[in-house]
Protein 1
Amino acid sequence: MKALFSRMINLGFHKMHRSLLIILGCILLGNLMAQDHLELKWSVEYRADGDPDKPRLAEASVPGAVQLDIAKAEGYAPYYFGENWRDYLWMEDQEFVYVTNFHKPDMKPGERLVFRSLGIDYEFEIILNGRKLLYQEGMFTPVRLDLTDLLNVNNELRIRIFPIPKKHPEPVDRSQASASVKPAVSYGWDWHPRLVPSGIWDDTWLEILPGSYLNEVSVQYTLSEELDKAFIMVEAMGKGLTACSMAWNLADSSGNKVDMGYLKSYMDRGVLYTEIANPELWWPHDHGEPYLYSYTLKLTDQSGKLLQTYSGHMGFRRVKLVMNEGAWSEPEGFPKSRSVAPIQLEINGQKIFCKGSNWVNPEIFPGIITVKRYEELLDRAVEANFNMLRIWGGGIVNKESFYEFCDQKGIMVWQEFPLACNNYEGTPEYLEVLKQESESIIRRIRKHPSLAMWSGGNELFNSWSGMTDQALAIRLLNSQCLELDPYTPFISTSPLMGMGHGHYVFRDQETGEEVYSTMLRAHNTAYTEFGMPGPSPVEILETIIPDSELWPPLPGTSWESHHAYNAWVGDTWLMMDMIEGYFGRAAKLDELVEMGQLLQSEGYKAIYEEARRQKPYCSMALNWCYNEPWPTAANNSIINWPNLPKPAFYAVRDACRPVLVSARNYKLTWMRGEEFSCQLWILNDQYRTLDPGMVKATLMAGKKVLELDSWVFGNVESNSNLEGPVLKVELPHWQSDGFTLHLEVLGHPEYTSEYTFLLSD
Amino acid sequence: MKALFSRMINLGFHKMHRSLLIILGCILLGNLMAQDHLELKWSVEYRADGDPDKPRLAEASVPGAVQLDIAKAEGYAPYYFGENWRDYLWMEDQEFVYVTNFHKPDMKPGERLVFRSLGIDYEFEIILNGRKLLYQEGMFTPVRLDLTDLLNVNNELRIRIFPIPKKHPEPVDRSQASASVKPAVSYGWDWHPRLVPSGIWDDTWLEILPGSYLNEVSVQYTLSEELDKAFIMVEAMGKGLTACSMAWNLADSSGNKVDMGYLKSYMDRGVLYTEIANPELWWPHDHGEPYLYSYTLKLTDQSGKLLQTYSGHMGFRRVKLVMNEGAWSEPEGFPKSRSVAPIQLEINGQKIFCKGSNWVNPEIFPGIITVKRYEELLDRAVEANFNMLRIWGGGIVNKESFYEFCDQKGIMVWQEFPLACNNYEGTPEYLEVLKQESESIIRRIRKHPSLAMWSGGNELFNSWSGMTDQALAIRLLNSQCLELDPYTPFISTSPLMGMGHGHYVFRDQETGEEVYSTMLRAHNTAYTEFGMPGPSPVEILETIIPDSELWPPLPGTSWESHHAYNAWVGDTWLMMDMIEGYFGRAAKLDELVEMGQLLQSEGYKAIYEEARRQKPYCSMALNWCYNEPWPTAANNSIINWPNLPKPAFYAVRDACRPVLVSARNYKLTWMRGEEFSCQLWILNDQYRTLDPGMVKATLMAGKKVLELDSWVFGNVESNSNLEGPVLKVELPHWQSDGFTLHLEVLGHPEYTSEYTFLLSD
């Protein structure tokens, strides 16, 4: 939601972000764009590593990152290639200053010139003509500074960026982020290099406003128990509102007016309480239409002159976390502990099996994430049959366009605060920043119907983080959400008791257990992180690893920098030993990649489908992870940077179809002559009953085919799975190294599934 | 903490509560007591059950309960005898009005007459001379009304008490309390009859105040990491403070001045920040001295005249809930859930094994709980070697003197909010009252060093309650505690994951499992409720059960009304079948009682000692329950109403000694000739190392004695248990029905333990 019909001056030229400024006042904008002010540009002052005494100046992209500006100015090679990312390490402890100069614009009497930024990373000061206007810690709290009374004819605006926050100099790892609200991922993770961004990372501009203007508009609602009424509160904050009229209009998705009214103003605040009957509800895309209404709020002065228009969209949904089916009857016996925490999501009274993934920063430098990137990646999420994304707490809270796309495309958002895998200790200084940042985050995101739940952060109550329910930071976040967005669920962290994180391998190299049996013994209310590594395709590997290191992959080379070795435990994430243990030694790179990607595909399929078979006790399956911030050599992601699906993406897409025939499998490798077995299921996440039918099951190896028994099944109840027979057959002595199980529902080719196995003696 | 040197007029004559008003201004009080106003008395207006049209008037005891006043006026027999409690049921849906008349007292110019009540139960209005001054829902929020400008010469003050809150007319049970902050217990529990109190339940008086006066004084502090500095904030609220001087004085326990200073006043608030070095720390009695400082705050006017003195005590302690030892390494394997919640209490950096009990209302009518009762029961808790009491959420939050005694006696308090075993649903109306009541509770109790933790309430996250972490009521309480008392731990409810509630029987009648083996397989971080029923002594039974019903005990008689039958499940709490299953048919009542009490004693001993053996993973053992609100026929309590210890009390006392020799036993009944076995332990909760020694173990049956092997043990480390050998011996063919195991540490008769077993063929 942005101010419209107020003139905007975009600082810094960044085409793709201009589109973010959903500007309806095109004529005015056109006028503005013709003005001199647009010629303004940012530079960044820095002191180069080898030349600390002499400040240098680089042209700055805004939004962007100082690291990228300097890299460009200094002629660095791409950071994603080889070991080039190390070139940036010296910047961590440096200060940088953004500088821009501008003429005082022509303004009518009473008009105000306001500097606005949606995000500056991380600790900074803003100085106008030598006078400090603001000190702020925190990248998620937008800046709004009225410069009017401080303007000269020629003005210099400086933004001083402090060194990145570090709780301590050693160890050099994510724990350095544990005293700040800086996302921890860039301090180094098992799929992210140590490369910590700084600078202006979201839209930033000068704005000429009328004497009376709106600062912030908030539209909140509650729904009646029967969902047949929406009680709406429109709230506007601004300046000089008492002397103005504020007209609110709500229109349906066809543009038909649904409601209108005038806000009553008190001081600098205006409020309207209104209600509408029988609102169209917002649904995740696989359960209905993600219906959106649009609204405008027009500010006019006493003469009736239009001063400003705010506009936005809204969707009506009720979201709850309710107890998973069967979970109330646990634990059994005495002494009795509490029941597990609820993680069954209910939208508009309908229990939804959540299928999706963990979203991570799609760029190392959030400043260069484009609207287009968000859109492409979210289109892919719909293509993957995902209805939920968990915005993992190690990364940023996304820019606005992300949530707007989720609203439109019907993708539910599990939003974490930027806390991950650390013990955020709860000093008063930290809590003060966390309070400010969380308030900014909640106020911005709560309006989105796609927002399904808040979470304090990632894996905070596990040993490697060391936080507990007693942590003041978590209690503060719970309290903040309760105050600012009480009807959206909040969980302290993930996993909670009953939910599962992991495993992250096809086969545990210590125990030898394969994913099939891990999942069969797992009894979890939700699988909110599970990984399955796969190597990146050769065309990616060639862009990140020097030719001389490409084959064979070895630790200590760029393979390792790109997470193929020693990223987590064992030889993650390439896991060459495991791959070659299944398939034998690879002769060349593309063979190895193919084998690894097959394991990733089959492994993910096994988990998603088994999680679905465990419905309704289980309510969620989100793999680790969806995308990646730079090109990795091997990773659990199903999409390579920037937006290249791995084969596993398609396997996951198929496993997440609303309806499919599925096999519960027991292992990857079978012996010739051994009795093969699998159990048949129909998985149905739709709220409709499926007709009876027949499943045909076939084993195939090349042209060799072995028919198994068919399964004639009856009705498949709405939002229910149907458990079928265990099929058994003696495996032929086929000479091939593997075979596939092909399942087909007669008359429904769209339900078809296929699984690959290895064959040995 | 009370206003002193302000004149008080106590309304209603209630000797024991007068002592609560820690009045230092004795001369003034003496003067006041001579005044006419003291002659004022309360009456209560009611409409009798059979005579609804004609209001009647009963003399009222304040504090007290309207039910008791009416019972007295109507000549009811004691409510604890037989079925007499049923006589009170008609009062539930009635209104009552307290009435008092008083003359306007002589007051100097500028003085104010203020009505104060510390608690009125539950929904009420206050009317002075026909004018409504206050409507309030909630018994824990004190009332303070300045009557000065509304006074006539003759005044009538009326307090209208609404019918008790009921969410619904049916079912008639505790769920009726689920929309209010009325303690649920009186709606009926397995050890509490349906008998719901109403009325003025805490001290209530008129007070003449000077023109400038203090309303509330709050002293809060934090301690430095090293505990060598206390940073103190003294805050006073009142009227006309700007024109006054406020002098603060802190003295140690010998009365020596430790600190002093003057509050700075702004508007009606005064603040002083100060600090002291090397404060003496408050400790639970078994780990040090419960050291208390005392302070005064003197309000003087510009001429130096003393207007008011507030005084109170304070203790310095740091309290934390930290992870139980070993709990971070759970759960193992993938998929991995969160680690359990911490329940290891740490006082001043020292981990403390908490031994204690669950405290319930010591009277059905909280208005008649006396200071003396609190003191006696808390002296007994110290005698029992208890260092913690859990103030169970089904009952009231206690009166001030309770917490003052706990401060003095060094008993840690786990304080629950008044929510228990219901689904408190979170309507805006309920949440508003809960917010008000919780704020009052926290502001009152946070000052006590004995306060060790807050809890949202009892068993809320179990199936029979149906609340979850998503409940707005729990989130609100967490938020309130965070805001008002951030450094005292808060847990959402009990049990949390990892903690255990139950079992409540010596032998599970369904599975046949005895308490010994239940505890051996239990793996809990804390045992925060475990019961063991025992019949009451004959002298109590004779006062509650008509002679004709006394023998044999039968369901459907007063035995049942007093919880011997159908109280919970099976034939709880008498469990005659089980008792007679072990001991054979009892010939008369005292035999039955003796048998049942033996099981209770041995059962409790087994649990406390096994919980202690599970230290340090286990950190707490609190039995269900300590006391009882009326005389029961059978109950899990170890003290009969009003203050009569059962044999189990002494068994528990011994099991909770800081040091003892203990046997891990495996069953109650052994066969002649069978191999008896038990394992020896030394349990040490003291922070000192015990010297090496020798344990002598003997089996005894009457005069027959069988020596077992001795155990020569080495040092017993500080705050650690020492695991000894398993002793085995073939049982002789003694003719007795039972035998005892006697353990003695040579030279330490205070460590001696004894266990009773049955012997059969």
Note: Chain B has 14 helices and 45 strands.
Protein 2
Amino acid sequence: MFKTVELGRKMSKEKFREALPKLREDLLAAHSELREKKLSVIFIMAGADAAGKGEVVQRLTEWLDPHGVDTYAFWEADSGDLPANARYWHAMPGRGRIGIFFGSWYTAPMVEKVYGKWKAKDFNKALSRIVFFENMLVEDGTIIVKIWLHLSKKEQEKAIKKLEKDGRATGKDWKHFKMYDKFMEVSEQIVSQTDSGPAPWHLVEAADRRHREFTCGSILLKAIRSRLAALKAKSSEKNAVIQVNIPDAGEISVLDKVDLNEKLTEEEYRKSIEKYQTRLSKLAWTAFEKKRSMVLVFEGWDAAGKGGAIRRVIEAMDPRLYRVVGIAAPTDEERAQHYLWRFWRRLPYPAGTTTIFDRSWYGRVLVERVEGFAPVADWSRAYLEINDFEDQMVSHGIILNKFFLHISPEEQLKRFKERETVAYKHFKITQEDWRNRNKWDDYEIAINEMIIRCGTAMAPWTLVAANDKHFARIQVLKTVVKSLENAL
Amino acid sequence: MFKTVELGRKMSKEKFREALPKLREDLLAAHSELREKKLSVIFIMAGADAAGKGEVVQRLTEWLDPHGVDTYAFWEADSGDLPANARYWHAMPGRGRIGIFFGSWYTAPMVEKVYGKWKAKDFNKALSRIVFFENMLVEDGTIIVKIWLHLSKKEQEKAIKKLEKDGRATGKDWKHFKMYDKFMEVSEQIVSQTDSGPAPWHLVEAADRRHREFTCGSILLKAIRSRLAALKAKSSEKNAVIQVNIPDAGEISVLDKVDLNEKLTEEEYRKSIEKYQTRLSKLAWTAFEKKRSMVLVFEGWDAAGKGGAIRRVIEAMDPRLYRVVGIAAPTDEERAQHYLWRFWRRLPYPAGTTTIFDRSWYGRVLVERVEGFAPVADWSRAYLEINDFEDQMVSHGIILNKFFLHISPEEQLKRFKERETVAYKHFKITQEDWRNRNKWDDYEIAINEMIIRCGTAMAPWTLVAANDKHFARIQVLKTVVKSLENAL
């Protein structure tokens, strides 16, 4: 594949000078339209050592508006506290911005494979995760431009010698040069397996400076333009047909299987809560010592008792070991990103601590679906995105528990009325709660689908019978304790 | 001082049980009013080892709404990449939230003094910096509650023995116990020197669990309430008299001393730019190797050529080594913090890189002053705050250059007109530019005062004669190069 681009392409000084002003003007205009349309760009600069990646990026930042561009080198080694993708999420360009990534999610597969540290299975899994990840970003309005600068073996040798003359070559350059063929082999695998429609690779012959710089600029311009054009075309066909599973009314839902008659006596409750809180209190410290983070997700009907259940969990934990994150309307920095971004930034840190989400990323397939805040295409894609997100957590060693607190509509009504009459509970009930209640059936459909599609083997749901608050709290505590005991 | 609180205070179980419901209810109500009024709380938990700091915090988080509380332990050692206060800025509770800090800006002075690593001068400087810092946060709407849990020597011994029985004592506990008197001595110095009116210390006898927990809860409640009360009282006397230096019209300003006739020929410009860019290009890498970060601040009249000057600087630098931050309207996460927060979060990281601010924290004393966005009390306080901020940068080893690009009103008019007629410059001129121009005299007063009051020896201003763009760009480049050469 790489051989085929070795055509000796060059660009003359005159041609470069002549063509440049137009390219720069067009790039500036494209950048400004990008901002207007709230699209973002991730520009991935990959390729051979000594191929001039730094120079190309320097040139591009010169041509673009520097206020809208952030360059990331991902220099520092990862602490390992968070799933590997966290560092890229933290560097994600917000809508309207351009992020230039030196090194990226391609670095680890490349290095680990060349040095023979990963098995084929891990390598392939990493690549298909990348395809999924890039696709997800593209769907969300990111333009991904991936450039691979290619040098033939002879050219690379020449380039490293030149670096050497300038005192800029390192031992690693020569070491890698000796592994040229191995690098080519792995590069081909990577490029061919991740050369997807939404985020294609561009192989650029890198020997001639002017050719590579002008070509990279042109590729960036073209990528932005074609996305803008697609956007215009798309707005006319917005209502694409998407297949959605809507169960027939009356069909049995997973929630029907929850036995809402479960309850505990005051005595049983008191004994159990002491038992599990004592265990949790120690387990939380053990998890910290062993650097095993935990994520707890609480979903459930309004007034199902999420807050009370969370309180019984944190009562047992040292406050230095957890953080409670209530999910309400996103901030404007969050709105400028993919919807998963706000959860990535709240993952437990440092390693060994716990984040408790009071409502979560499942809002995407619950409230955003039912209220129509997200178009069908967006929320129906979310099941896969969420499964992948949770898979990344669990694969990284994070202990994940997801709770859905289920109550009957009658119980909810009772609790709403109580909230309205008891003074210090009054602040807990709003008009919105009543509105949500009227959409019970729509929510039930959405909940049912969520539990089925995101109840994966690796991240199962715990359905909590919550008509009896005591029973619910113990079920939650017990599940958390058991999951920690299993994991530690 | 500490001896005097050793009164053997206790709280009986009955009294605790009886008083608690009211305290909890009041705390919840206060927390909710806090949110409404957009005030924040920093609760600093300090004091003797084994005094029960963790337990108190655990209790408080139980009593408050956990969604509005974040607890920080500052466990990890500081990387040293950023000025020491950066970690506290990153943990700052936004408006409406409560941040509980275990360990805080008091930890370093305490430890370093007890172990004899700091001289008296450094210790005293650190303490007065703390007073200033806390005062600044209080002025901005933060309630600072500082609690020092005290144990007599005998009580501490008992407490450590108890920890030992539970398997929770460490060698450090006994080591520190042997240094009890030394700790007391330094604690007294710290408490007495930082016991300011806006952020007073509360010494709490810690031997009795119920007494210390209830007392800490009550102190927190009282602190919030008294601030809320003060807020109500204050709204009636908002127009407190604040002394502002306004020079007489026609008085000579520092800007008048800038020789706007300075210019360079095309030839001189070309030679100089090559010379300085070549040097800068290498210096930037040297700075990175030596981990010396740099901050460049660009201020100036509209159309003074800030963008062009910045471009000539970054042309010379590898894009992995700098970040350009354009300062426009704050995001809502930024609005929820002290105005300096958004700059703290953008300081150069990792160590050895450069952040270029296109407009900066000086907006506080320029646009916010002239347009009346900030009340007089706020912007007039800002000079000191800014000097302290810059002092922290420079003391940390950051190379700081501040440029003010000065042009004449006639030159500005010429450039505005050019921008309006030249197609590709059109986007650079807005109605706001014309409005700002009409306030030239007000801005001149504000600029003059800013340059005088913030032109400190440690962070001087460079006034750039910018009627000639070539001259201005070279002056900027040269200053940056020289400052790097001096520092490295």
Note: Residues 209-234 of chain B form the longest helix (26 residues).
